[in-house]
Specification:
Two copies of one chain form a homodimer. Chain A is an alpha/beta fold and 401 residues long. Helix content of chain A is 35%, strand content 26%. In chain A, helix 1 packs across helix 3.
Chain lengths: 401, 401
């Protein structure tokens, strides 16, 4: 008998019909002789509705009270899903974050799981109950309710799977797995049977919005076998695990990320400490920087460019404008008409020529590259936004993934 | 510095404007130098909406899961009210039932408070925080969420006031106190300054829907000073306490209860054990019986009539039909075209002639009495439904309350 953790997102439990669909998936898993812990998010738009209620009263509400409010969303889901399972005749119990023993730190709104107190979970599983646990939430050491922030339910599922030494952690979504490229952009993109944690991390951070990075990191750390699969179709999804077969495949997938803004500081003095001043100021404002590019110095000056998420654009520009005089910069330019296209694959580090093949594909498609960034298992290029779809198709074709 | 518990019902927190109104009442109480614990119900129709969601999925859902679902209603209210208080600049914290240490028995859906674990409450009050506690909910010994059933938030407020030895427990409603009669029926009904626990209990059970009986019983048991007052107007309400001044006033108020059905079992044998069989069968089905009337035996038979809430009508009739043959009854009749009108007052037991004065008022108004029931501080009559308003006015006038 295996122990399986199954996570269902908000769209999977959006209405009564979908809740019963989820209940049947859980029930079938239980009938096959497994113990099941299901983790659920808030229904469809519930969280947005609750945020709107709070906004109306106090846009500056404390994060503590926001967590009290938002955590009701998952509490509604777990009770409704438990009622559906009861209707189908299964023994089950819903558990809120605190009832499931999910202990977090005190960073309201984006807490991290510190520990799972397994006592009740193991006790209820021992009685043969299916457990329906509220994702996204926990409590801190003061017994205050906390929430885990974006992708929190994925993290809850992986944390529970790790704590309970589950045999598998299945993440059900509205896609049926991880693809070599976005099927909406590349018609002959195909589903990967398996992918490594590292590759998944790169793919996730590159905009293949299937799994949140924190949950993949945690799965890797505790060696939790993940599977991404569809809640609507009953077929195998993509396995995410430590070691995957590389075969002759050079790259695992092509990803696109349009949430990119490039900021360039042009004509700063080519002296030590310039980069430090720029990036320490951004770090102090908690702005994550992705690609960094520094031109070769010429005439005593150099240019520094970097990319950030669009949501930080105004804040970052304000910081740069303030630094402009101190750095004696010629100009600060911003461009959000850009997209980042990347290839990912553990195979590429032992296969020379991967980068040149990617650049060749782009050149053949007459697409200009603005910036290049590489890691051991990833090559990213910054290109014009309106050429990003063509770029993904061209690269996918070139590598025949 | 006094400690005041204030309870606000669902209509008092139905929207943002009303939530701020409540926040200002709480804030003013705090500013006057008091410690404040506010107890709130779910907003307006929230509970009904949640029940509808559950009905759609499983009309036979377990009470355990219903409690998980319904308790989110108050959790939403407490966070929104806390946000409003934050906006007004007050230090405050919302607490769910379990965070406030409300421990109950395990009767899901209608639990009774067993104990309040005061540790956190006293700790937070000691820090100068206003506490906003979710009414209607608690947890049982297994850490499962429970709800207290109808009028549960009143009970929560009184239980917290008792545990914390509060100086006052204020129940805010949409009326400004307890009246000598329903002001909508009797234009010159007037507000009572004070009323005893016993009188309040009789008034409440007679349809003066201000306070739930369980909360009044608990207030009496633990000697909690209650006050019923309006959340919309800032003026004194009605004090409910142990001993009240009786003055020359004979009766405290006139109440009407239209939620009445009379069932009559006609022509049963005038032998011992008949009443036992009827009322034990009703008790076994957990049907509360109010007035019981047995005719004097004649020709070896007698008639037994009793009143119950309309919601039990069909169930009770089924039981009576089943008993009919066994009891050899001539007929079982039901009438829900009736109303119960009552007068309540501690003074009446030492003042002869109260009953006759009531009957005189009804006779003068040409209103026929079907049944009469009396207690130490109450006289009730069952009359035709369409005469109930005239009856209340006539009695109110006769006693010049």
């Amino acid at each position: 008998m295996a122990l399986i953790v199954q996570k269902f997102g908000g769209s999977s439990v959006a209405d009564a019909e979908r809740i019963f669909n989820v209940a049947r998936i859980i029930g079938d898993t239980y009938d096959a002789g497994n113990s099941v812990v299901a983790v659920v998010s808030a229904q469809g738009d519930t969280t947005d509705d609750l945020i709107a209620k709070a906004q109306e009263i106090n846009p500056g509400a404390s994060k503590r009270e926001m967590d009290v409010l938002l955590s009701t969303g998952e509490q509604i889901s777990i009770s409704l899903l438990a009622m559906a399972l009861e209707k189908l005749g299964y023994p089950c119990k819903s558990l809120t974050g605190w009832q499931a023993g999910v202990l977090t730190d005190s960073t309201h709104g984006s807490s991290r799981v510190r520990r799972i107190n397994k006592e009740r979970l193991e006790n209820e599983l021992g009685k043969g109950n299916i457990l329906i646990v509220a994702g996204f939430q926990g409590i801190n050491r003061y017994d205050d309710i906390t929430t885990l922030g974006r992708g929190g339910s994925d993290t809850s599922a992986v944390a529970l799977a790790a704590a309970l030494h589950a045999d598998n952690c299945q993440i059900f979504t509205d896609v049926d797995g991880v693809y070599t490229a976005d099927p909406r952009l590349v018609p002959n993109a195909h589903k990967l049977e398996e992918v490594s944690y590292d590759e998944m991390l790169e793919l996730a951070s590159l905009g293949a919005q299937v799994l949140h990075n924190r949950s993949v990191e945690m799965a890797q750390k505790y060696n939790v076998k993940l599977e991404v699969l569809s809640s609507l179709e009953r077929k195998p999804g993509t396995q995410i695990k430590e070691v995957v077969q590389v075969e002759k495949m050079l790259i695992r997938g092509v990803a696109r990320d349009n949430d990119v803004t490039r900021i360039s500081i042009i004509g700063v003095a080519d002296t030590p400490g310039v980069a430090f001043r720029i990036f320490s100021a951004l770090a102090a404002a908690k702005i994550n920087v992705d690609i960094i590019l520094q031109s070769v110095g010429r005439d005593g000056t150099k240019d520094i460019s970097f990319t950030i998420s669009r949501s930080y654009k105004h804040e970052a520009m304000e910081i740069m404008e303030n630094l402009k005089t101190a750095l004696n910069a010629h100009e600060v330019a911003v461009d959000d008409n850009v997209s980042k296209v990347s290839i990912v694959g553990s195979g590429m580090q032992t296969n020379p020529g991967v980068a040149s093949k990617m650049f060749e594909a782009l050149a053949d498609a007459n697409i200009n590259i603005h910036m290049i960034s590489t890691s051991e298992i990833k090559i990213s290029v910054l290109i014009d936004l309106d050429e990003s779809q063509r770029a993904v198709v061209a690269i996918h074709e070139a590598f025949e993934v």
